[in-house]
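Structure, all two chains, one model.
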Amino acid sequence: MPEGTIETLSALFITAVVLLATAGLSPLFFPRSKRLAIFSFSLGVLAGLTLAVFSLGALANGAPVKFELPAGLFPTEPPAFLIDTLSAFFCLILSILLTAISLYSVRYLDHYDGTPVGVLAGFFHLIVLSMLIVFSADNSYQFLIAWELMTLFAFFLVLYEYRKEQAVRAAGYYIGVSHFGALFLIVMFILLQKFSGTVLFSQTAAQLANFPRWSLNFIFIAALIGFGAKAGIFPLHVWLPLAHPVAPSNVSALMSGMLIKTGIYGLLRILLIVHGSAELWWGVLLLAIASSSALLGVMYALMEHDLKRLLAYHSIENIGIILIGVAMALIFGFFNMPVLAGFALTAGLFHTLNHAVFKALLFLGAGGVHSVTHTRDMEQLGGLARLMPWTAAAFLIGALSISAIPPLNGFVSEWMTFVSIIQVYRIEQVPQALRIIVPLAGAMLALTGALAAACFVKVFGIVFLGTPRSEKALHAKELPVSMRVAQWLLALICIVTGAFPFLVINATAGVRIAFFGPEALIPASAGFLSAPGGAGTISTLAVFGALFFFLTVGLLLTRAFGKGRTSEHITWACGGEAGGRHQYTATGFSKPIRRIFSALYQPKKQIVVDTGDNKYQIRSIKFHGMTQNIFERYLYHPLIDGVGRLSQKVLSRQEGNINGYLAYIFLLFILMLLVGGSR
Amino acid sequence: MILLLAALQVLTLLLLGPLFSTFIRKVHARIQGRQGPPLPQGHYDILKLLRKDRIYSVRSSFVTRITPAVNFAVVCVAALMIPVLTTTVPFHFAGDFIFFIYLFGLARFLTALTGLDAGSTFGGMASSREMTLSSLAEPAILLGFIVVSTAAGSMDISVMTAQLIDLPGKYLNPFFILTLLSFSIVIMAENGRVPFDNPATHLELTMIHEGMVLELSGRDLGVFQLAHTMRLLVLTVVALDVFFPFGLATEFTAYALFVSFGALLLKLFIAGVVVAYVETANAKYRLFRLPDLLTLAFALSLIALIAYYATEVAGVR
């Protein structure tokens, strides 16, 4: 490859970093300046485009782009940047979101007039910058520092509306779970360094023979917990539905779209090193966690009527679907079937891209709805499709994608996941039990997909269709052009990657090869995508074409016979006039599901009847229904109480004497040296 | 050639769709001692509707306006993905069984949205029930499909059909019979037949499928009805293809096509009579008993999967 390419790519990467640093730091000095915030987001769009060019170039190039900062400046090994295809793929996703969300944010700031918008703009770009460093770090210290900074910056933005009690509680959960995860990551990195003798990821894999068996298993578990906490897998998900909704919507889009994907990235980065020595139970455990995350995520989403919290629960679902692909890749990899393993891994990667795109799209839509109606409560919305048709149509495309409705992108990745699950019968030496368990995971995935569709019928139907349920929804108006463009940019990506899946298949070819060697090919040409071994072929492009053809025929059929007229009338309401309150509510819509799965939800209701003086005359009836979150109730509340009690006890060891504290730190230091010191 | 076959297939199903639904109504009537409608009644009804005015609610959005055509398009594309008269499938490169199943999700999604679009009370009720029941049906059908595709070694519907024609002793094999039962339950659910829903009822509180399209009228309703009858036929035909694949033409000659058309009519005749008997013998279930039925379908699929591997271990196959 020509020497110039690498130099150009490095230059592009550094440009993006500089742009992001400028966009991130400058508004922090003048937090009240809206102009500077707008300037910052404009730089963000520019950085996004630069990064997109860089990532596409790096993916097309195939060879890793790497550079180190000069040694002497740092006490340990200098930060090293290495962007291989795995990094480049995640950078590509980041660049798409950065461009769209920054563009959206320019006018979205109007919604936050009077608040320190510079803080919003600054930390937004600093999160992106630290994510970029996470994706490109080759040095584990550098990775961890960027990782922690990313968590911290996001923490500030979760607290952006710090006067709301909800935000404070959410931020507490967020930082707590994140650091619980980080603890495992630190131990994991210590082990990696101890047995490999290097802090560079790129050189760790070669030392795999030096790792004792227990350490590999420990590294896998630690990575699963540490990165899983960031990704929001069950049961480490609790912070996610709390933290994502309280942040400003552009930040929610970034968090749900990208921040949780850093967990996927981290897990893949570690798996890339250790998967050669994987054991079968790694994949099976991951599959079990992933399928339950997916199913429980969507189940809880169904019960929500806070628009943004509902979307946050769907992130848990989709992280589960992504990890099902990764788990199947581990299982196939264990049995040394590179083609199927590569296919399953690609399913996960494809879904990572898809989820980033459509979840950002949906959050931008939800943010738009929030900014014009000032409510996130679905029960107060309705009829927005007539008032904001562009936003509604883009949201519908996102809703169809996330519900895995063909021929959009969400379907393609879910199809690939299904295919991976079904192909388990091809493994000859597989234990019989797995032949039953893996299809059961497939059945759970099917249920998940169908429930997601039910949930998004609810979301779109209640929020955008029908008639307004409150005064707030009555005066909604269409969003400014730039916000619409940002949403449609993402909607178009949903359509294009759906119609031309080979774009993503080819972009991930390098990752497949890095994991499973050059055999891991997926035949994909312009219109077609085939399952390994010719077990089935789909062509979303052909289906797009055929659907349009028959759609035209169908529309012509309504004109072909006679000259029937079309007129508009008010909706029939049995003689009365149907108001907003006559419609089905979001709570009512999910009632059958609440009842069928009542064992999980444990629904409770409270009915207060006010009869006043005369017990035969009812003045008012108040109904309050709720569902229990059994994880918070049975896992987290006891845990938090336990930690509280423990810290009460530790209090007696707090002498307030600085020598005492120094002794503690010294003891800890000795302990760390004993555990982690190199051989 | 492919285009000719595609046109033939869609036209066959377009013509047979309303006929099949009317036929089931007719058998119903006969069992109940009534005369029943003449066989082309379904066509008459649709043609009549296609000439009529349509009324939209002032509240409804673009969703209501495109739903009938989307339903029609989905069922036509699905019709291209299955073997109808020949084992050659015009659109086999475009979609396998999973795509086929998921494609109906598109129609269902928009139809359910139409239920909420006009802001009436009944539509939302029906949408909610439809989405709940279809969610519960999905695991059963997917797991059943996993069994069948494992047995056939492919997910391509035409390959599956061709493989299963040659599978010896399949009607004695437990996995085959169990999947057939599971699929039958799901098809009844997907098409809103008794005991899931009563297609003949017009009582708003009990209906599911009809409830979502209460606000459709005239020409739009005509197109929707056409799509609806075709959907029942397409799903029945795909079940017949998988479980009773005999009679399908393997070459493209007039005689073979004639024979396979006759075989199709015969199979549909039997299927229609069976459906009508099941519907007459059962009352519509209470809404919250339906999950039990769908769980049963899921359990049947699961037992089928276990039975499949059990017979393999026992060396029966």
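Chain A has a mean pLDDT of 89.
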